[in-house]
Amino acid sequence: MPSHVQWTFFTTLLERDEKMNQEKQVMEWIDSHQEEIIQFLQQLIRIPSVNPWFFDEPGPSKEKDLQEFLARKLEGLGADIEMWEPVADELKPYEGMAGYYPGRDFTGRPNLAATFGKGAEGKSLLLFGHIDVVKAGTKWTVDPFEGEIVDGKMYGRGTVDMKGGVAAMIMAVEAVIRSGFKLKGPVVVGTVVDEEAGGMGALDFIHHGYRADACILTEPTSLTIAPLCRGILWGKIKVQGRSGHIEMPQADWRDGGAVDAIKKARYILDQFDRLNEDWAASKTHPYLSIPCQVHIAQLNAGEYPTSFANEAEIVFNAQYLPSERDEKLVGGNVKKELTDFLRQVAESDPWLSEHMPEIEWLVDADCAETDVAHPFVQTCVKSLQAIGEEGRIEGLGFHTDMGWPVNVGIPTINFGPGDPSLAHHSDEFTPVAEVIQAVKMMAKTIIDWCEIEEGSNQ
Questions:
Q1: What is the 3-state secondary structure (H, E, C) of 344-372?
Q2: How many CB atoms lie within 10 A of CB 305?
Q3: Which of 22, 86, 179, 220 could form a cystine bridge with 204, CB 3.0-4.6 A?
Q4: Pick from 446, 431, 453: which is nearest to 175 by CA?
Q5: What pTM does this model have?
Q6: Residue 5 CB burial class (10 angstroms; 0-12, 13-18, ≥19)
Q7: How far apart are CA 223 and CA 214, in angstroms?
Q8: SS3 of 311, please?
């Protein structure tokens, strides 16, 4: 009769072999259904779910069409479906926090949640993504809403941001289910609207009560694990001048002479260069390749070629780190830092000190971070390595919807196919091989995190 130690060892070997066999079956299903996976992504691209914020004129959004298509797909796989339209008034308690915009209309723009294994007691997983895209714009060499494949790359609006990730996460769930396995823990597939215009869909999804023990947000990461994203502030600085004939001698400004708003704006810009040197040394993160900076995006000034500019506008983009969030988990601390800096700059100039520039805040897109040592992050790294990828960890310099899941205690990573630098570009594309790899990584993570019931495919 074998000893207790021998029996335990023997049982462990059997369990390991069973798990390896389960994974092998799922990976074989993915390999044998690659064409179906890619065709599914093409179907998503062919529904132009452009966020209406980008419409030149008001018109119906196709977001509902896409959500209904996904609902049919997920229901056919056995999910419990809930689809609802966010209501801005119900989100008023979040005023001042990320994603809240009073009065925004979501008629015909629903969120979708599909739950597999509702009520199961094991560890749960949320697979999360947005289905809205920016408008296609011009200068495409292919149809932006066709999903044409050229040299192993699928072209189309949303292939990167982020229908490639949405398709991959759904097909990962299908791979496990079609392989005949039942999970110990539930999987929730959440697809939301409005990320491209501020993230109110994600806020509403969390407000609606959906929670999980972990989350993969399938934004494009070029198949790296991204456990943080930066916050983004957009602001507009209004610089006052005093117009006057540009070709004539001018008196001192104290005596009514002209003041060139462009020259004063240039003075402010020079000081921002100094600030950026300080930020380059202090606002860094080990998983971000570049520091936070204040980037000037637009300059608007002047009325006539014969007059000094009466006013100038400086539109900027400033990034901030999760460690800099304020009590409402957004960028209030950095807003104050920039407002104080601008005041100090203005006080060093006689004209500006009496005609103080003001910042109009346009956007505050939140950020978040999950500790890389968290077991879920490490599970994802091992899943990626298991399919032959490096398993690299790298932060995202841009905003994603990960803020609200993290805010309510859900450890979250960003992971998906596609190069994020190609998001919103003409001829946006994703390598189809990356889509397949993303399906495999998420299927492996589902198996390892939620776990499979013994004998569930027998």
A1: HHHHCCHHHHHCCCEEEEEEEECCEECCC
A2: 7
A3: 86
A4: 446
A5: 0.92
A6: exposed
A7: 18
A8: strand
10 pLDDT band, cuts 50/70/90, is: very low
Task: Determine the length of the chain.
Answer: 458
3-state DSSP assignment of residue 125: strand
Determine contact, residues 130/196, Cβ cutoff 8 Å. yes
DSSP one-letter code for 151: T
In angstroms, rounded to a whole number, what is the distance separating the alpha carbons of residues 54 and 48?
A: 12
At CB < 8 A and 24+ separation, what contacts does 55-64 make? 55/135, 60/108, 61/108, 61/109, 61/132, 61/193, 63/108, 63/109, 63/110, 63/131, 63/132, 63/193, 64/108, 64/109, 64/110
List the catalytic residue out of 23, 161, 195, 219.
195
Whether 179 contacts 457, CB under 8 Å: yes
Q: What is the DSSP letter of 253?
A: G
CA–CA separation, 158 and 165 (whole Å): 10
**Residues in a beta bridge with 355:** none
Q: What is the chain's percent helix, strand, coil content, to nearest 5?
A: 40, 20, 40
Verify whether residue 349 is a known catalytic residue.
no
Distance of alpha carbon 442 from alpha carbon 110, whole angstroms: 25
How far is 405 from 128, CA to CA, in rounded Å?
10
| Nearest one of 76, 127, 183 to 454, comparing CA atoms | 183
Residue with tokens 């390991």: 16
Cis omega (within 30 of 0) for bond into 169: no
* Predicted confidence (pLDDT) per residue in 371-423, tens digit: 999 999 999 999 999 999 999 999 999 999 999 999 999 999 999 999 999 99
C-alpha span between 232 and 235 (Å, rounded): 10
- Return the residue matching tokens 């450890």: 411
Check the CA dihedral 394-396-400-401 and report its sign.
Answer: positive
Beta strands in 223-349 (DSSP E): 228-229, 231-240, 294-301, 311-320
Per-residue pLDDT reduced to its tens digit, 207-236: 999 999 999 999 999 999 999 999 999 999
What sign does the CA torsion over 26, 32, 36, 37 have? positive
3-state secondary structure of 48: coil
Catalytic, out of 23, 63, 132, 434: 132
- Amino acid (one-letter) located at 96: G
Decide if 36 is catalytic: no
Say which residues have a Cβ less than 8 Å from residue 323's Cβ, sequence separation at least 6.
369
